[in-house]
UniProtKB/TrEMBL annotation:
Protein name: Large ribosomal subunit protein bL21
Keyword terms, alphabetized: Ribonucleoprotein, Ribosomal protein, RNA-binding, rRNA-binding
NCBIfam families named among the record's database cross-references: L21
Organism ancestry: Bacteria, Bacillati, Actinomycetota, Actinomycetes, Micrococcales
Matching HAMAP family: Ribosomal_bL21
GO biological process, one term: translation
The organism of origin for this protein: Leucobacter luti
Family that this chain belongs to: Belongs to the bacterial ribosomal protein bL21 family.
Subunit record text: Part of the 50S ribosomal subunit. Contacts protein L20.
Example of a GO cellular component annotation carried by this entry: cytoplasm
PANTHER family: 50S RIBOSOMAL PROTEIN L21, LARGE RIBOSOMAL SUBUNIT PROTEIN BL21M
InterPro entries registered for this protein in UniProt: bL21-like, bL21-like_sf, Ribosomal_bL21, Ribosomal_bL21_CS
Keyword Ribonucleoprotein: yes
Amino acid sequence: MVYAVVRTSGRQEKVEVGSIITVNRVAGDAKGKLELPAVLLVDGEKVTTDAAALAKVKVTAEVLDDFRGPKIIIQRYKNKTGYKSRQGHRQDLTRLKVTGIK
């Protein structure tokens, strides 16, 4: 089984060919293709962590869609003072499908 750990938008994700991952909003090229940098590569029983060898590894993905995450409510409240504030946030996300690990 071949899989890789890639770095994207400040996090690391374990991916295989055909896996679908959700990451913070990233922009692909005009065709929706994207290349992700590998941090670790497992090819059968061989594990590659060397930076020089990983520079040659290409993990390609295609952008499936851009969407917004669930609404997160931020509330602040201070007792006995009448202070309360409420704020909402929705994160911009991208769904990626990994097409190749070479």
